[in-house]
Design goal:
Length: 344
């Protein structure tokens, strides 16, 4: 009944899955390899981090589907999905934001400056290719940095977008710090999918030189919260039963989602539908440009589907909060047509 998690410590998605398994007390072994360079996983599709081999021998990829499949395979005890459907949706929204927007903060910080590039690339390559001699490892590190820097514009990590991306990271640290000082988790006294989504990205940001120093200086209790959530196997707790019980920090996090992430998703979806090469959207008063990304189009469709499928009472209960945090306008309909063509 043991699972095998194939991934590296520097991957926010791999450590997220591992932290969920630790909390849920599911047996696993950690195989420290980068799946893209590991012979065993070459036939797995899509080949993204992490790859988990289930006890029946089958392989799964993509952290959120893996976690949800674990919920199906091992229902009930120590679930990471809140019992209340409305809170469960908010948890999924926070996790999606962490996976798809906060990773921009990580990628932008890691590959923007030489010190961060070297630190992050050395961490990844040394885990991916243990046993390499020093000179060969240096070559691998240089090649990895070159490849990742070339990818930055594809995910919107450009100098023009940097002030906006940095602003969203600082806003999240401030929201998390007020929460980490007084509360344990977002939706109860036990961790949720949303908590683990934030943990995965913040865990990696905490180690990188620039982003980590900023976290320790600006949000030291958040850094401690991240360390604690790495292994929550000893946590016992309950879900909150209503929105009135959740910490005030949730509103601040959702405000970040409403200002930065959901308008980006809506613009990305419009750009995909129109076949644009690049789109621009105004986020928090600043222009953000990126090529449309198909996976994030699927993320938006999934969120819209989950929201529309909520029981009427659950939806009515969370709509005022979603409206107040500017999330509702992008969830209650297909989203505004706020992308415009660039490069045609």
């Amino acid at each position: 009944m043991t699972h095998r998690i194939i991934g590296v410590e520097s991957s926010p998605y791999a450590v997220k899955v591992r932290a969920v398994m630790r909390y849920r007390r599911l047996p696993y072994v950690w195989v420290s390899r980068m799946p893209q360079f590991y012979e065993e996983t070459q036939g797995v599709r899509p080949l993204i981090m992490p790859v988990v081999q289930f006890p029946d021998g089958s392989y799964r990829t993509d952290s959120t589907p893996i976690i949800l499949e674990l919920e199906t395979a091992y229902p009930g005890a120590r679930s990471v999905i809140p019992d209340d459907p409305g809170l469960a949706f908010l948890s999924a929204l926070v996790e999606d934001f962490a996976d798809e927007w906060l990773t921009k903060c990580l990628f932008n910080s890691r590959f923007r400056q030489a010190e961060d590039q070297l630190s992050g690339a050395a961490w990844v390559m040394d885990d991916a290719f243990p046993g390499l001699d020093r000179d060969t490892l240096r070559t691998r590190i240089a090649e990895f940095i070159e490849r990742q820097v070339a990818r930055m514009p594809l995910v919107g990590c450009t100098p023009a977008n940097t002030p906006l991306i940095d602003a969203s990271y600082l806003a999240l640290l401030d929201a998390m710090e007020s929460f980490a000082a007084t509360e344990r988790f977002l939706f109860g006294t036990r961790p949720s999918l949303g908590d683990f989504g934030l943990y995965g990205q913040l865990n990696t940001l905490a180690v990188d030189p620039t982003a980590g120093a900023l976290m320790r200086d600006r949000a030291p209790r958040t850094a401690n919260w991240v360390r604690r959530l790495a292994d929550a196997s000893g946590v016992e707790g309950d879900w909150y039963s209503s929105l009135e019980q959740v910490p005030a920090a949730l509103k601040e996090i959702l405000r970040i989602v409403g200002v930065f992430y959901l308008p980006f998703l809506a613009a990305n979806r419009s750009a995909l539908a129109e076949g644009l090469d690049e789109f621009e959207v105004i986020l928090d008063g600043l222009p953000f440009r990126q090529a449309p990304y198909r996976y994030q189009g699927k993320c938006y469709d999934c969120l819209l589907s989950q929201f529309s499928a909520l029981p009427a009472a659950s939806r009515a209960a969370i709509e005022p909060l979603l409206s107040e945090t500017d999330c509702l306008r992008c969830l209650a309909r297909a989203g505004p047509q706020i992308a415009r063509s660039l490069g045609h």
